[in-house]
Specification:
The protein is built from 13 helices and 20 strands. By secondary structure, it is of the alpha/beta class. Helix 9 runs antiparallel to helix 10.
Length: 465
């Protein structure tokens, strides 16, 4: 049995030889190129000429665009003004006979030609940037290294390279180098302020004295390093003040703990190991031990970043350092610790953001990385809301440290301390470099006044500052 003829024929072919099928015409018509958009289905020398003109135009336009971009990156706004005024001054001077305009045009043109000499030429250098350690503390020395090698066959002149550090720029002088010579320069990096800083890229700037042209070239990639807040090695949180606070029993009763409270009659569900057999023998009724629940080892450090809670920047910096010291010590002691800071309400928000930001406490470096970029703000929540939200978000708190400045009054501290359950021991750390350090009790919580980080060390030992 033979197949139908329509199956035996190939797709797109007509049964008549020498004639295109309709499918072949439709397939070719679906392909659109630049040529078909320009000349359509026309052929011949005229169509080829149109295509050649379009190609030349596109090449010229791309070249002009690159030239404009290159020129714009070199000519300063003042240079564009001079370039626009010089021809106008010359034309106006010669047309109206004003010698002053002619002189001004000639002077401007001369200055432009001299300025171009400052940006002509290029250096064949290889520059390497060695950044300082990725993490340093405030006040610690930090150095970066810049290695410059002359790869040309001629001696290079001495110049100055710029090293951006954050928002500032450090000029680094580089001497003249012989062919294939090199120079290593060490640069002291300022670490007087904590933060996350961008180092580099190393660049050279060639500009004329008037400021008509400026040519900048980047030689290296940028690097990043973090300046941690200054911290102090305080006593372990397993001893001293924290241990004293956590060692106090609470008023919550439990059937299993360390602090013995009293005996009571046995009820179904009590563990037999807690049966007091001597009392059972005397009374003839099963008696079990009852305990007072001791404090669990969960520390919370709440830092207010509201500007109203601090009298100066020095107070806030001390507060950040105190927070970092407490948190890093607790992390090293493998204790459960939560470090929270106030949330900041955006500038154009309709309502205040009622939240706290929990900082990472996996390692001390992760915590200090986050504290390095913390800044106080007038739109941040104060210590009252921060304490309330911290008490609601963290469970099983044993000790809460509230880190504030000198402007927080005793009544506000009482209200903030009352945000935590009665079983939580609250310690307020009031940072005030201009105040005499001390320790006092305000009702059910303790207030430590700190004038420096050394006062924190004394306070954590459990003694008076």
């Amino acid at each position: 049995m033979t197949s139908p003829p329509s199956v035996r024929h190939s797709r797109g072919r007509s049964s008549e030889p020498g004639r295109r099928g309709p499918e072949e015409h439709s397939l070719g018509a679906t392909v659109t190129t630049a040529r078909t958009r320009i000349v359509g289905a026309r052929t011949g020398p005229a169509a080829d000429a149109v295509v050649a003109i379009v190609r030349v135009w596109r090449t010229a336009r791309a070249g002009v665009s690159r030239a404009i971009a290159a020129t714009s990156s070199v000519v300063t706004p003042l240079g564009w003004v001079v370039a626009a005024l010089v021809p106008l001054a010359l034309l106006g001077g010669y047309a109206w006979g004003w010698q002053e305009l002619v002189v001004a045009g000639v002077v401007g043109a001369s200055l432009a030609l001299v300025a171009l000499l400052y940006v002509v030429g290029s250096r064949r250098w290889t520059v390497a940037l060695t950044p300082p350690p990725q993490r340093v503390a405030v006040g610690d020395p930090a150095q970066a290294g810049i290695l410059v090698r002359n790869d040309s066959a001629r001696r290079s002149f001495g110049t100055i390279v710029d090293l951006p550090v954050g928002t500032s720029v450090i000029p680094v002088p580089v001497p003249g180098l012989p062919s294939h010579g090199q120079a290593l320069r060490s640069v002291d990096i300022p670490t007087d302020r904590r933060g996350r800083l961008t180092l580099g890229p190393v660049r050279t700037v060639r500009a004329d004295p008037i400021g008509l042209v400026r040519r900048e070239r980047l030689w290296t990639e940028a690097a990043e390093f973090v300046v941690h807040p200054r911290t102090i090695d305080i006593p372990s949180t397993s001893s001293g003040l924290v241990r004293d606070l956590e060692g106090q029993p609470t008023r919550d009763l439990t059937s299993s703990d360390l602090a013995f409270h009293a005996l009571r009659e046995y009820v179904p569900g009590d563990e037999r190991r807690h049966i007091h057999w001597k009392s059972t023998a005397k009374t003839g009724t099963f008696m079990v031990r009852q305990f007072e629940q001791t404090r669990r080892s969960h520390l919370v450090v709440a830092l207010s970043i509201a500007s109203i809670d601090f009298g100066s920047d020095a107070e806030f910096e001390l507060a950040v350092s105190v927070t970092g010291s407490l948190g890093a010590r607790a992390i090293r002691d493998a204790r459960e610790v939560s470090v929270v800071v106030s949330a900041i309400t955006p500038e154009f928000a309709k309502r205040a953001v009622l939240a706290v930001d929990t900082l990472p406490t996996l390692t001390p470096n992760r915590l200090l990385d986050s504290l390095a970029v913390v800044e106080h703000s007038p739109s941040a929540l104060g210590i009252l809301d921060t304490s309330r939200l911290a008490g609601e978000s963290a469970r099983g708190i044993s000790v809460a440290f509230l880190v504030v400045g000198s402007t927080v009054t005793a009544s506000r501290l009482r209200t903030a301390a009352a945000s935590f359950p009665p079983a939580v021991e609250v310690v307020a750390l009031q940072c005030d470099p201009d105040h005499v350090p001390g320790r006092r009790r305000l009702g059910a919580f303790t207030v430590l006044t700190l004038g420096s980080l050394n006062d924190l060390r004394h306070a954590m030992r459990g003694g008076d500052s």
